[in-house]
Amino acid sequence: MNYAKGLLTTALTLTCVGAQAEELSVVGSWSGLPLHKEYEKPFWDEKMPTASDGGITAILTTHDQMGIKGGDVFRMLGDGVFDVGMTVADYAVADSAALEGLDVPLIATDATAAKVMVDAARPMIDDIYADVFNAKVLGVAPYPPQVVFCNAEVASLEDLKGLKIRASGRMTGKLLEALGAEAVSISFGEVPGALQKGVVDCAVTGAGSGYSAGWWEVSSHLMPVPLGGWDPVVTAINLDKWNSLTAEQQSLLQATVTAELEAPAWETAQNALATDVACLTGEGECPGDKHSMTLVPATDADVETARRILVSDVLPDWAERAGGDWGQRWNASVGVATGVQIPLQ
């Protein structure tokens, strides 16, 4: 009798543990870049299981390892193909022009200002992901600022006129066109070949991303002005999956993403830029291999000109394309936080 009772107790215990445990299928951002290697992978492989005592684990891959395009990640997430998706928000703007308002070029020149901008935009971003992608946003982490790699002689922003430049996002493309360049849409993985063959003269991406991907081999000049913003990477969970979790699981998952994934990525973002520029140009302290790209600092006049075009042309164009009250919402949130207002009709 006691033996049977013991078996029943054991069975009930195992059933409860099984019901409480969650194994999430997670698709991360680019597998070869620092954000995934240094933050996403350790988080899902180690930190989340540890924080939950094994109650929340993950099977982790990345969109490039799966062979799917970045723009498909959140669509597939919404359809429930996997539980959690992590990729650059700008990859998804074809599904929502309003989403472009998360990553505006030139407004934030350091990580602190970029975090203020992202935090102010979060209510808008939460609504977009819920309405468009059937998803809940768990966190937003930055790539380092999106700077300009050129395989051409450039000495200022003025020299970008007439050049073919790969944009890191749609709003960046609009800004480049307003500066007189030709914005070209090419995926991140195709850029080295395009630079080498002259399909594009320059390309915009994070300094660390370009360093890791070897862009220094096919480009000669580096302009570390954030023409591409900070390319925020959104971590989101399928809303149906989120609603199936217990309140305790939801609370733990959200708190751990915030403290162990999002916060560390922001904390190192600013120093990462300085280190990446040093490694690309050979000027300054670099913990890895140094290269010899020519550093082209943007002048205050360059930045002021680009910022004026951003406010007078690019942001109003975005507000019109986004439609509805998105321009007003942006002004009342991000605009107030950053001191920038879109002139609306």
Structure overview:
The protein has twelve helices and eleven strands. It is an alpha/beta fold and about 350 residues long. It has two domains: about 20-140 and about 230-275, 3-Layer(aba) Sandwich (D-Maltodextrin-Binding Protein, domain 2), CATH 3.40.190; about 145-230 and about 285-335, Bacterial extracellular solute-binding protein, family 7 (D-Maltodextrin-Binding Protein, domain 2), CATH 3.40.190. The chain is globular, with a radius of gyration of 22 Å. Mean pLDDT is about 90; it is low at about 1-20.
Assign an overall shape: globular
Count of runs of 4 or more consecutive helical residues: 12
Chain-averaged pLDDT: 91
Give me the CATH architecture of the largest domain, please.
3-Layer(aba) Sandwich
Helix percentage range:
40-55%
Oligomer: single chain
CATH topology of the largest domain: D-Maltodextrin-Binding Protein, domain 2
CATH-wise, what's the superfamily of the largest domain?
A: Bacterial extracellular solute-binding protein, family 7
Total tally of structural domains = 2
* H and E string: HEHEHHEHEEEHEHEHEEHHEHH
Briefly summarize what is shown.
The chain is α/β, with parallel strands linked by helices and 345 residues long. The chain has helices at residues 2-20, 34-51, 63-66, 73-78, 111-133, 170-178, 191-197, 207-212, 239-244, 247-281, 300-322, 326-338, and strands at 22-28, 56-62, 84-88, 135-141, 146-150, 164-166, 182-184, 202-206, 221-223, 233-238, 294-295.
Reconstruct the topology from this structure:
Layout: H1 2-20, E1 22-28, H2 34-51, E2 56-62, H3 63-66, H4 73-78, E3 84-88, H5 111-133, E4 135-141, E5 146-150, E6 164-166, H6 170-178, E7 182-184, H7 191-197, E8 202-206, H8 207-212, E9 221-223, E10 233-238, H9 239-244, H10 247-281, E11 294-295, H11 300-322, H12 326-338
Parallel strand pairs: 1-2, 1-3, 6-7, 6-8, 9-11
Antiparallel strand pairs: 3-10, 4-10, 5-8, 5-9
